[in-house]
Design goal:
heterodimer; A: alpha/beta; Rossmann fold; OB fold (Dihydrolipoamide Acetyltransferase, E2P); nine-stranded mixed beta sheet; 30 strands; B: mainly alpha; MetI-like fold; 13 helices
């Protein structure tokens, strides 16, 4: 492996900008770190170069641990967005800089310089000053300079950002060619997905300091695992659907998902439908794909090779609900059509059309949508506007519904609404919270968020589960929550007091959990060991510092309200309960 | 050469006229008068005044102390500018504002303040006395006063140049294998060298022309702590206008030659930069 990162973490002012990133990049690989600005990708690159120290984790280059090695001894080449050429030196001096530092003889330097200038197609420019070159040429010089000392790793920090489209294209090709010719392991940082697609062998997508997903460009595009990747990498419609034994029920139609459905009970899922996978026709019968519903064209934009439509779905019994949007007004479907499709069926603004979907991808995310539940409509409305809930929903690009249960928490009472629960049910913390939580859990709610009034985005998420049946689900939910929060994850292992050290069985479960979190969800968690009663220890640990949240997995309910009453009724921390296993 | 420079702003003729008129009335004409007054003396008188032992002693002190002061400011002005541009610390803005104090203070006030502190019974002078170091009423005091009043020029000239040295340049040099000293010598210094020279020149020019602060701390002993501007004033007080003009003419010539030399050095340095490649 050329580059190995192991749990690399870096904070600025207490906020993790690079959060537990582990990554292996192979010899000669062209790896692209893609993410929005502020996602931590540049910081990670600087950490690899040695220009930024890390607080936690290891960095190895070609098997050599360089975590504490100075940048000048790491043997990397770095190219900056603004070229960073030495303006008082000629092209030749710039390129020979690293060689002069190493006291290479003049003749050898000259030869190496010629070779490099040929490589970047700038022969004969030796005596020019940077100011006499165009932007594209300057960046070529910067690339040649970064390669002069034959580094083992080439790092490119948004190298095309300051160039116009045509030069950019040309330079991309040059860099890819040079990289192939030299077989040098390369990491490129960019926020431009076209660039990532055009250059990468593999793409790693970062958000909020976390490396969310990695993979070949095509795999990431067609089978993203997270909402963020689905919507960041190209346009995507996120549609809430139901997973049934027959397949995925989207709107009026049931389609077999693109990949094998995992077993389990019927539940709500989030599906990704790419704009090019949506078909538009005059009537339902003319559609070649599964019928989604009828829609009105709000907007028709011609963009050259494609036509872009925004469709508003008409209300109806089977109207699929779009996951994204503050209300129904925003729930527009994005569609792109080729010239060929345009010629077959022309769409004008205001026209009503039949909409079909060709391909549906189901996201493995366990958290599909939120439902704020309260005894009356006013309280439910108020809860649905809680800041943390709104923020989570916005980041997850999902919606918040409301549900009124007048007899919420009253023993023996029946559910007023449908006797099914979709997504995550949310109730307010405070008095009766524990009793209400148990009431909902016993009536089928699987994920339940108990939310204090003033709760804000937490900095640390504590994870604990009781009963191995809940382990996988708790980890999946935790991973999903943590992908949308810049918080660190801590697993609390709580063992019976007295022994002084955890039983071997408990230790093994803990290690299994860690490796499952890493392997399946890409989630790095720290572990803490505590001894005592679970509920008491959780309460104590939550009380340690503000800004914490608890995710609590339960295999069985037992005497829930009595046991965890203190955690929920106090109303100080958000608690997300994941209930799996025997009802 | 044409006087019609292409510019989107009209009025080149008018502005050029103003420039020449302004420079003529407040710079060139008085200087010409000085030259005239100085050279209208009898040759023997001129030589006598200009090459008297007292005058030569004053030149040595004036130009020597000014060069020393400018050199000190070259180093410490750079250090101050570096601290102010590179680090974030509480009170940075305040210190930045303090730099300009010597600009704003009447120079006589600076002189009195320095004398109070460095006189034999002053706060610092008292501590230096047992060590055998006398500051007030010696050439050291003169240098100190000149250093103080010329300091802002050195700092303010280097500051913008330092701001322009991007951190990326240093980062790039570091990844290429350069140590800190090498980065400073080969990257930072060449980039700010013109600004350093400008700062040096300005500080020197200011120091040579200084009068107010020096007369308080120097003690004005002929041959020892008497600067040329003071000698000129002494001539004036004796109504020896021609003698004063003659000394002024000498200062003018020496200053002009030195400034010219520094400018040539700067131009040469700039050219040389570009040619380091070969």
């Amino acid at each position: 492996m050329s580059i190995t990162l192991d749990q690399v973490t870096k904070h600025y002012a207490g906020v993790p900008v690079v959060n537990d990133v582990s990554l292996k990049i192979g010899d000669g690989e062209f790896f692209v770190l893609l993410g929005p600005s502020g996602s931590g990708k540049s910081t990670l690159l600087r950490a690899i170069a040695g220009l930024t120290g890390v607080e936690h984790g290891r960095i190895a280059l070609h098997g050599r641990d360089v975590t504490h090695v100075a940048a000048r001894k790491r043997g990397v080449g770095l190219v900056f967005q603004n070229y960073a050429l030495f303006r008082h030196m000629t092209v030749a001096d710039n390129i020979e800089f690293a060689l002069r530092v190493r006291h290479m003889r003049a003749r050898a330097r000259r030869e190496r310089r010629r070779e490099l200038l040929r490589l970047v197609a700038l022969e004969g420019m030796d005596q020019r000053l940077p100011a006499q070159l165009s932007g594209g040429q300057q960046q070529r010089v910067a690339v040649a300079r970064a390669l002069a000392h034959k580094p083992e790793v080439l790092l490119l920090d948004e190298p095309f950002g300051a160039l116009d489209a045509k030069i950019r294209e040309e330079l991309r090709r040059t860099i890819r060619q040079v990289q192939r010719e030299l077989g040098i392991t390369t990491v490129l940082v960019t926020h431009d997905q076209d660039e990532a697609f055009a250059m990468a062998d593999r793409i790693g997508i970062m958000n909020l300091g976390r490396l969310l997903e990695m993979g070949a460009p095509h795999d990431l595009y067609s089978r993203p695992a997270t909402r963020f990747v689905a919507t960041f990498l190209g346009a995507a419609n996120l549609i809430l659907a139901r997973r049934t034994p027959d397949g995925i029920q989207v709107g009026a139609t049931t389609v077999a998902p693109a990949e094998r459905a995992s077993g389990g009970r019927e539940n709500e899922v989030v599906t990704v439908v790419r704009p090019e996978e949506i078909e538009v026709a005059a009537t339902r019968e003319e559609l070649a794909s599964g019928y989604l519903g009828r829609a009105v064209a709000d907007e028709v934009v011609f963009t050259g090779s494609f036509e872009r439509l925004r469709l508003r779905l008409e209300d109806g019994a089977h109207t699929p609900r779009l996951a994204f949007g503050d209300g129904e007004a925003n729930a527009a479907l994005q569609v792109t059509r080729t010239q060929h499709e345009q010629r077959l069926y022309e769409v004008r603004p205001g026209q009503t059309v039949a909409v079909g979907v060709r391909r549906v991808h189901v996201l493995p995310t366990p958290l599909s949508s939120f439902t704020a539940c309260a005894p009356d409509a006013a309280q439910a409305q108020q809860l649905s506007r809680q800041p943390l809930l709104s923020e989570l929903a916005a980041r997850m690009k999902t919606r918040i519904a409301t549900r009124v249960e007048p007899q919420l928490g009253e023993a023996g009472a029946q559910c007023q609404g449908e006797n099914t629960f979709v997504g995550t049910t949310v109730i307010a913390a405070g008095a009766h919270a524990a009793a209400r939580a148990e009431w909902l859990l016993r009536r089928g709610a699987r994920d339940l968020l108990v939310l204090p009034d003033g709760a804000r985005a937490p900095q640390r998420v504590l994870i604990h589960w009781i009963g191995e049946a809940a382990r996988s689900a708790t980890l999946a939910v935790s991973a999903s929550v943590l992908r949308h929060l810049a918080a660190e994850a801590v697993y609390l292992g709580i063992f019976a007091p007295g022994a002084g050290e955890p039983p071997p069985q408990g230790m093994r479960e803990l290690l299994d959990a860690r490796s499952e979190a890493q392997a399946t969800h890409g989630l790095e968690i720290r572990t803490e060991l505590h001894f005592g009663d679970s509920a008491a220890e959780l309460g104590r640990r939550l009380g340690d510092s503000p800004g914490q949240m608890l995710i609590l997995g339960l295999g069985q309910l037992g005497e829930f309200a009595q046991r965890f009453g203190a955690l929920l009724d106090g109303g100080r921390w958000p608690v997300l309960i994941v209930h799996r296993g025997a009802a | 050469m044409s006087f019609r420079a292409p510019s989107i702003l009209p009025g080149f003729g008018l502005t050029f006229g103003f420039t020449t008129f302004f420079l003529s009335t407040i710079v060139l004409l008085p200087l010409a008068a000085l030259v005239l007054a100085g050279t209208s003396m009898h040759w023997a008188d001129f030589v006598h005044t200009v090459f008297s032992a007292r005058a030569i002693g004053s030149y040595r002190l004036s130009f020597g102390a000014s060069l020393l002061a400018a050199s000190i400011n070259l180093v410490f002005g750079f250090v101050i500018a570096w601290t102010l541009t590179r680090y974030e610390f509480p009170g940075r803005k305040l210190i930045d504002a303090l730099i300009d104090m010597p600009f704003a203070l009447p120079t006589a006030v600076s002189g009195i303040a320095l004398t109070t502190v460095f006189a034999q019974n002053g706060w610092i002078g008292r501590l230096l006395e047992p060590l055998g170091i006398k500051v007030a009423y010696t050439w050291l005091g003169v240098t100190l006063a000149l250093t103080l009043i010329s300091m802002p020029f050195a700092v303010r000239a280097v500051q913008p140049a330092l701001l322009e040295v991007q951190r990326d340049l240093e980062d790039a040099a570091e990844t290429l294998g350069a140590g800190r000293l090498y980065v400073f010598r080969r990257i930072i210094l060449p980039t700010i060298l013109p600004a350093l020279l400008t700062g040096f020149t300005l500080a020197f020019a200011r120091a040579v022309g200084e009068y107010g602060s020096v007369i308080f701390i120097s003690g004005n002993l002929p041959m020892k702590t008497e600067i040329t501007p003071l000698l000129i004033v002494i001539h004036l007080e004796q109504f020896d206008y021609q003698g004063a003009a003659a000394l002024g003419l000498v200062m003018l010539v020496i200053s002009f030659v030195m400034l010219l030399a520094i400018n040539l050095l700067q131009a040469w340095g700039r050219r040389n930069h570009v040619r380091t490649a070969s």
